[in-house]
Design a protein that fits this description.
Elements: H1 49-55, E1 57-64, E2 75-79, E3 82-86, E4 94-99, E5 104-109, H2 110-115, E6 121-128, E7 138-143, E8 148-152, H3 164-174, H4 177-182, E9 185-186, H5 218-231, H6 239-246, H7 265-283, E10 289-292, E11 297-299, E12 308-316, E13 322-328, E14 331-334, H8 335-339, E15 350-354, E16 364-369, E17 377-384, E18 388-396, E19 409-410, E20 413-421, E21 425-435, E22 440-444, E23 448-450, E24 457-458, E25 463-466, E26 475-478, E27 483-490, E28 494-498, E29 504-508, E30 520-521, E31 526-527
Helix pairs in contact: 5-7
Amino acid sequence: MKKVLHHVLPVLMIVGLMTGCGADTDTSNLQEPTTKDALVNEENGQIKDADLQETGFDKDKAETIDPTNASGEDILYTYKEITVTFPASWEKRYVIREHDDDNGFSVLQKASDDKNEGWGFLFSIYSSDTPYIDAPGAYALSYTKDKIYYFGTPTDVPYDCEDEEVAKDYELLQQDLEQIKASIVIDVPQIHTNASEYVFPMSEYYPLTEDMLLNMGENDLWLARNEIYARHGYHFKNGYLQSYFEKYTWYEDRGDSFSEDEFSQIEKDNVSLFKKMEDKTASQSLYPLEEKVGKKVSADLSGNGKKNTILYQVTEETYGNAKGCLTVDGIAYDLEEDFQIYMDVPEDEHFYITDISPFFDGLEIAIADYGPSDDPVTHFFVYDETDGLQTIGSVPGFPMKQMGFQNGFVSGGVIGYSRCMTLDVHEYTVYYWYDYENKSLELQTGDESHYDMPRVHVLLNDLPLHYTMDPDSATFIIPSGSKVFFKECIGQNWVLVHGPNGIEGYVHYDENRADAMFPYLDEMGMDADQVFDGLLVYD
């Protein structure tokens, strides 16, 4: 049988020190786990007996790793087809419990479990013949035609954090989870090791139902439907979709040789179901509405029950400069003179009526401009009878799905796309919250920048990556010649790099050296363009 080494992406684990986190822990923002193997009592972090019986977590099968092993070597544990490697430092600090339905096992901190049996849940590895959809704490590792494997993590604080010694030990164990996850070997034939690269890993094999897709959003349904086409090498006319899929090594563009006749009946049925649910989700909101430039339309902009008449026109002035003019109820507003909005390459076929906030009764007008140097921007306006037309701000990028991108309108705000320089110039997602009381779109900042439509780079040298954003943490190597892309830029000069088959890790960079165009990879002693092919730097 073929053994496959898994490198998998970090997932969110809601754990940490909290003051007085026993029965008084505030869990109002924590979700009840829905995976079979990660059920945790929200009152005290203990895995409940009833849940253990229901999900296959058998207390009577508890196994403590051999405490006499003093070799200082890493510790291998094999459960059926699954093998995982624990660091030598874990010796005598954890216990393993196999699930009584024989689908996997769970690992607990020994110090917590000794105090109260069932406490100290760290992670579980398990398989299921039914895929979970957005289950809290469930990370898809690999899949076959009949089974999918998950890495389960806690969704609550599963240890006694009032005991400082126990809490510290738990947190130290937790720091090794990414390295442990990367060590997992699943010994089964014809296994797909890149489950993390799919919205729905088993859509080529598993017949889906409406109930399974109820919690999926419009964007994920759209990507999941086209994912089936991508598996068969379809070349997408939509530029966003083409960029999205071609960054994955499993995607092979077959051009004219693609044929839908190759789809299995399961795939055909799943495509139809995705499209049905996608349309159903989109129909729950009428907005954004696409309207014709130069044509009068009606909309209740102020939310007072009275329809306003709107006309948007684009004119070309001397020297080829374009100007936009919005007319509402017969009053004309020149975007340049009244709002200091200078159009570069305005969208001259459509404009949009939007509904950003559910807390604001009115609607907005959205005007698209392709901008200079392909820097698109969308300008938003509101209107009422007292103040007339007002601008509430501009968002970089096009959040309107009709323009070929994902739907960027989320409850209470707008997702846009901006540019910045990390290892090279890239686009990343930004979020603007709509302060409807002050009629302003406010940029929300954070430590993470998620790359949008990242470019693929070929490695010119072996690339060491960290499992965590700690320069002292363990590393692994992606070999020269591999195709990678940048996934996130996270605080303090760390970039999350995505490699073949879902392997991911962190690289640290420093400021550019004198006369160098790209940042310096301090741990490698090289400039970024000596490691990654095809980096770009431009205004």
